[in-house]
Amino acid sequence: MFQDSRSKTAEFYPASNLFSSIKNGINWIKNPYDALDKLSRSNGRAFWLSLPGFGRVFIAGTPSLIEAIRKEPALTGGIGMTFLRPVLGENSVIMLHGNEHKCRRHQLAPLFNEVFFDHAEELTERYAQEEIFQASGIISAHSLFSKINLRVITELLVPKENESQQKEISSAVEKFLTSFSNPLFLFAKPLQVSYKGRTPWDRMRKNRNELVSLIEPTVKEHPVFGQLPKDTAIEEIIALILFGHETAASAGAWFIYHLLSHPSVTNALLLESAPSASWEAAINESMRLCPTVVHLTRVATSDTTLTYQDAHGEEATVLFRKGEKILPCSYLSQRDPAVFPDPDLFEPKRFSNGESLFRNSFFPFGFGARICIGKHLALRQMQIIASTLLTTRSVTLVNKNLGPERNQVVIMPKKGCLIKLD
Asked: Strands 2-3 and 315-320, how do they pair?
């Protein structure tokens, strides 16, 4: 069976006019979980699709395809993230590929060595206790995780004695992350316009510039970022804020939602101290159900043909022309019933033996050479914050059935998962 790259593009709606195309894009941006559920019912877990910000792409969500993508050196990351350049810049590790990406990861590795890791863990414990003790009434779980993580990041960036500078940076980060509520501004170039400083795009640029002006003086003396060119260091810090802090806060909010929705799981976890294998298994299961980023991005650097097994176990091939984009889709692969029976159920015991059994089906932190450099710290922080919250406060969900909500490039539970603290 041969599937050529000029084959029919999957559509959300039957019509192929401009209105339908716009409607497709809005649905994807607003609720990609729902969009992917609908698409997979009619197209399986591998299909072509037109997406805003990406153009025509191939969605890959089967273990065999993911394995083929992992092994193919002609499919590379970084260069497919062009829509993020106005926010991240040109030179952050997320935007690089090949040897440049490898070298930058090596330069950033000391951020996550044993000394920094232990310090970050200590800060997380301290700030989790402070923020959770002070919180009252109805709050957003996302906001709670965000505040704690941001305090950790700013102290790792700025010495503790400069507390006023830390607060200024934290405030500027919050302004930057809330520059616009509609994620269309990231994906749709026609909306990225300036007019006398009055448009949402102007506001984002202004807030970014303010954040840069506060970060800039901290770079030179920093033991890791100080080794990079100033502009590059600033871009790496912004990438850390957007893809480190914000993704961790969203994943933490989903984790709290799943735990509070399954009290028997929570009660069992509270019998043991975090961090532990059981706590990590529960986090993995939460991320399996609700990934904060629904896909990775790869680009064909030359004409490439992949061979894989389709849903019926038959050999299939797909041809990618140079420049075409492939999106390994964590949402689809992590809900594949052939790999995860009863995929809609929250069952942490799936990961009781770790995640290695699901190498080609579970990748919330990415895979291969581009796996998230802060993965282990993020897992540790989520365990510390969630366990501190659930062991020191009485917590209930405000809304028991929460759908997803896009927060710029990441997906979090609606309204950040509102919880009531008694």
From this structure: parallel
Q: How far apart are CA 75 and CA 326, in angstroms?
A: 8
What range defines the domain where residue 241 resides?
Answer: 91-290+368-422
On whether both 153 and 98 belong to a single domain, the answer is yes
- Whether residue 387 is found in the same domain as residue 335: no
* Residue 111 and residue 7 in one domain: no
Alpha carbons 5 and 7: distance in angstroms, whole number: 5
Judge if 96 and 226 occupy the same domain.
yes
**DSSP track, 86-104:** HHH-S-STTT--HHHHHHH
pTM of structure: 0.92
Per the omega criterion (within 30 degrees of 0), is the bond before 328 cis?
no
**142 and 83 in a common domain:** no
CB 421 within 8 A of CB 135: yes
Domains contained in the chain, number:
2
> Are residues 299 and 406 located together in one domain of the fold?
no
* Reduced 3-state DSSP string for 111-123: HHCHHHHHHHHHH
Q: Are residues 199 and 325 in the same domain?
A: no
pLDDT confidence of residue 58: 94
Q: What is the mean pLDDT of each run of 10 residues along the chain (422 residues)?
A: 42 46 73 92 89 82 95 89 81 91 93 88 96 97 96 85 85 86 72 84 92 92 92 92 88 98 96 94 98 95 92 88 95 96 97 90 94 93 97 95 88 96 93
Cβ atoms 222, 233 nearer than 8 A = yes
